[in-house]
Fold this protein.
Amino acid sequence: MDNLQSLYSFAAAGIAFGGVTLTFFWKGEEALSPALLKWLSKVLKGAQVTKPGAEWPQVFGRAFDRVYGADALRVRFILLASVTSLLAVAFFFATYLIKLPDFAQSLFSDPFQREAVSKQIGVTTLFVNFVVDYLCLAYCREVVAQMQRAPRIGYLPVFLLKDLAMKVGLFVIATGAVYGSFASDGSFGGNLGDAFLAVPATLWGGLQFENISCVYIYSSIISSFWLWAYLLSWFTFSIAVRAPAILRTLKWALPLDAHPLRSVGLVAAVLSTMGYWSIAGLT
């Protein structure tokens, strides 16, 4: 019965994750001009197969600005970045509890463990996720601007690697700082070197959902998630254009004429749901 409940929970969480992905594109389409919408519709339907130009990163850039704003120093951007970070922490903490029902049960029944976990999540969320997510969201917008200046498809791996390297670097530094503070309070035997050496093993275990650091890792990556989902969806449509049967199915199933970016969002939502199920261990 517990396994069945976990299965249902994973299924619901994956669908919810896809829904959040779709919401970004749904809202972002409102920022696109009629000319840009028309261009995007033609490209998705294969009626205008050209080399990628400045338009394709511009589409994402305008959608991003519609959701978060163009200025990372404004209150709106900072507030929405904080809300995004908090929601991501809550979502992946729930995922961690779904994967470890025994831990979840002990957490709810043991007040001492609950206090310790709450303190850890509160401190790490404040000093790692909020800061890292804000900086990475701001850098994500900068990556899009760089893509507009150099829109050649060959540069795409470089942009994505730069984006990922930025996040990994910031996260490792922030986690090291938090672990250093724990060492000063007596954890790790009070040894600062041991605290820093524990960071790589902890993060590797977190990537595999073996410890609670998975909450911070995956919720930090979320700051670039929409960019990656957009590019993967674009790649999917690029393949579909060369496969008539797939393209006919997409034309039939998606509102490519009326809502091209929301159509991209629907594909991104499906990819997101499948990715979540895969990473979280459902498959």
Notes: Residues 2-280 form one domain. Residues 111-149 form the longest helix (39 residues). The chain has a mean pLDDT of 79.
